[in-house]
Amino acid sequence: MSKLAQNATVRSFLFGLHKLKFMLGARLVPHRTAASGAALFCTPIRPVAEKLALPAGVPAPHIRQALLPSGTVTLYEWGDPAQQPTVLLSHGWNGWGLQFAGFIAPLLAQGFAVVALDFGGHGRSAGRRASLPGFIDTTEELIESLPTLIGIVGHSLGAAAAACTMAHARHSALKLVLIAPPNSPRLFLEKFAAMLGIPRRLVDAMQQWMEQQYGRNFDDLSVIRIGSRIPAHTLVLHDPADKIVPFAHGESYAQLLSHARLVPLEGWGHFRILQSPDAIRLTVDFVAARESWRIAEKISPAW
Q1: Using CA atoms, how far apart are residues 62 and 117, in angstroms rounded to an integer?
Q2: Three-state SS for 133?
Q3: Cβ-based neighbours of 40, under 8 Å, separated by 6 or more
Q4: Residue-wise over 218-238: b if at least 16 C-beta within 10 A, else e?
Q5: What is the pLDDT of residues 112-137, one digit of tens each?
Q6: What are the residue boundaries of the structural domains of the chain, listed by start?
Q7: Any idea what the Cα angle at residue 167 is, between residues 250 and 184, rounded to 5°?
């Protein structure tokens, strides 16, 4: 048996034990199991160190630790955010800032400064746990600390955090690009509980633990409830066959936000969409105010 196969077998065995623990715990100590499951849901998995390295061909950033009220995060800066119009790049769950590598040079070529970050518990940033409320707090604080910010490009949970931030902060001058954005955390909590063998009757208790822990109700994190309060001009990019975040979530943003447009990008999936030349081109054109919606007619699938 190869080392790779051995590692996969060990991981499968350990996951089986983990699932058995939660299944038994749900019967014997349900409230403690719900809290433990919710805490695990809020524990991201960091990528291997090699993935955090600067990709080939990307200009070297200035890397610094930013001390924010919600915690210290790692920032990657290109250009001069104090002087140039600035675009913030916001990664998703289990992600990291340099996943946006393909966006950086095109944005710089248009005269923008670019700031990417690793949220707490992700990438090079410290921390063990994270959450959508934590992403929102960090996004709000970065908006306040970047006086020349003109737009946010978010992927997955980072996109949801940007949208929620705009609903409450009402920075109407900012533009949003939301790539594969989830419209509520509840669906993913239910999927996670099912994966661990935690019965549906305990999902409400898991949600309550998270709401008490992080001080935000799930209703305040749902675009169905807050979409009409998001004033920003918004571009939504989503693969109709996304297996992680259903396309219907992206559609809900386009339907509920006052100034939003959805462009389907077929064949890229949930993660590879960040490498899509069309996603990069549409994003740069939109942020640079060249809102060329007809480009959508020229898009080709990835396959």
Answers
A1: 12
A2: helix
A3: 196
A4: beebbbebbbebbbbbbbbbb
A5: 999 999 999 999 999 999 999 999 99
A6: 1-41+186-216, 58-184+222-298
A7: 40
Q: How far apart are CA 286 and CA 175, in angstroms?
A: 8
CATH of range 58-184+222-298; options 3.30.1180.10, 3.90.1070.10, 3.40.50.1820, 2.30.30.30: 3.40.50.1820
DSSP three-state, residue 2: coil
Let me know: does 115 contact 76? Beta carbons within 8 Å. yes
Model pLDDT for residues 235-267, shown as the tens digit of each residue: 999 999 999 999 999 999 999 999 999 999 999
What's the CA angle centered on 98, arms 51 and 282, to 5 degrees?
130
The confidence band for 14, taking pLDDT boundaries of 50, 70 and 90, is low
Kindly report which listed range (42-56, 69-83, 159-173, 230-244) carries the lowest average pLDDT score: 159-173
Tokens representing 158 are 């980072």
Q: Please write the tens of the pLDDT for every residue from 181-234.
A: 999 999 999 999 999 899 999 999 999 999 999 999 999 999 989 999 998 999
Going from the C-alpha of 49 to that of each of 52, 95, 115, 118, 250, the distances in angstroms are 5, 13, 21, 14, 31
* 175 beta partners: 151, 233
